[in-house]
Amino acid sequence: MFKHIKVIGFDADDTLWINEPYFKEIEDNFCELLKNYLPTKDISKRLFKTEIQNLQLYGYGVKAFMLSLIETAINISNKKVPLEIIEKILDLGKQQLNKPVILLDGVEQVLSKLFNDGYKLIVATKGDLLDQERKLKKSGLEKFFHHIEIMSEKKESDYTKLLNHLEINSSEFVMIGNSIKSDILPIVAIGGKGIHVPYHTTWEYENVVSDKIDDNSFIEVKSISEVLNYL
Asked: What is the 8-class DSSP label of residue 227?
């Protein structure tokens, strides 16, 4: 299935390092701050709705999340949220921007092996430009990558543009990531290969309805270390 692969793309968040648990931690703290207005479940629903509505304006990442948190707080409180809570929300976001970068098990060993085997490695990830650049620098993984692409979206057209820019044939490219929706299905649709490495928690927006998935179009492994069995 992967005999002619020359270039390997990696998602970053929750593929190379921990990310989603930090967002969940902020959301839990946010719900606690606003518990006098609505039950936790309802606050989370309102927040998710606001995030999705704002994607086209703010994109992905911590800063976009902070803006959606503030907007949700204003709406839930009928514009009566105390300034102190807004300040605490901003502090939560700043804390996340300064979180340590914790690599997932096996990541550095896998990148080192593939790099030494002669594969060209790239990062293709969504998120805030400055935040992702910071995480890559702190991760110590930059040395393995030929190219780093921080994308506003991960649709078929975005992958096509990336591969054309780097002069990569889709049939020689495999994408590795934790999101079937963003990392696997789009690249498979344009003739590439995919390796899905599930993470124990995934943002609701990245979930895919099961009847849209062709199980023959990619493989799924339990950990990133297993990709070496296919490359």
From this structure: G
pLDDT digits (tens, 9 = 90+) for 22-58: 999 999 999 999 999 999 999 999 999 999 999 888 8
Residues 149, 47, single domain; the answer is: no
What are the residues facing 167 on neighbouring strands?
none
Q: Give the CATH number of the domain where residue 190 resides.
A: 3.40.50.1000
Question: Which stretches within the chain are classed as H helix?
Answer: 20-33, 40-58, 62-76, 83-97, 107-116, 129-139, 156-165, 185-189
- Name the pTM for this structure: 0.88
Using DSSP's 3-state secondary structure scheme, residue 124 falls into strand
Q: Exposure of 211 by Cβ count < 10 A (0-12 exposed, 13-18 middle, 19+ buried)? A: exposed
Domain boundary (39, 62, 97) is at 97
Which domain-ending residue is among 97, 127, 154?
97
SS3 call for 97: helix
Structure-block tokens of residue 20: 């989603």
Residue 128 has a pLDDT of: 87
Mind listing the pLDDT tens digit for each residue in 209-225? Answer: 444 555 567 898 999 99
Residue 169 structural domain: 7-17+101-229
Both 133 and 212 in one domain: the answer is yes
> What domain count does the chain have?
2
Q: Indicate whether 189 belongs to any domain.
A: yes
DSSP string, 34-56: TTTTS-HHHHHHHHHHHHHHHHH
Q: Is the dihedral of CA 198, 203, 205, 210 positive or negative?
A: positive
Interacting residues of 67 by C-beta distance below 8 A, sequence separation 6+: 54, 58
